[in-house]
Amino acid sequence: MKGEPPAGESPLAAILCADAAAFSVFAGRGEAAAVRALKGHIGAIEPVIGLHSGRVVKGAGDGFLAEFGSVVEAVSCADAIQTMMAARHHRLTHSPKQARRRGAPRER
Questions:
Q1: Given pLDDT bands bounded at 50, 70 and 90, which one contains residue 10?
Q2: Which site among 73, 84, 96, 97 is 20 to 30 Å from 90 CA-CA?
Q3: What is the distance between the alpha carbons of residues 108 and 105, in angstroms, rounded to a whole number?
């Protein structure tokens, strides 16, 4: 099939790793509100991942791993998530503002 790796080889994937920066600090100030805000953020992020042809492969606490078929899509998605989160933070008034960290390995 087109786009499939040769037999015996694994497909290459770009992985996006993100978590809520300082989530434990926010949870310490009000765990229920922090968890509600986190769930709202994750609910808003998941469709963005799908729009960039990605999928969440693992969620853990305040973070997740998402897989993409290309680095371009992964970086484009990370940028879209950061832009969206900045807009969400601007609108939040009573919920803790949560920054999201992202990481992508680079070749040397």
A1: low
A2: 73
A3: 10
The confidence score (pLDDT) of residue 106 equals 55
Q: Is the pLDDT of residue 1 over 50?
A: no
78-88 burial, b if ≥16 CB within 10 A, otherwise e? beebeebbeeb
Domain of 38 in residue numbering reads as 20-103
User: What are 18's strand-pairing partners?
Assistant: 64, 102
Only one residue has tokens 């994750």, namely: 42
Domain count, the chain: 1
Per the prediction, the chain carries an average pLDDT of: 81
Contacts of 104 (CB under 8 A, 6+ apart): 14, 15, 16, 17, 71, 74, 75, 78
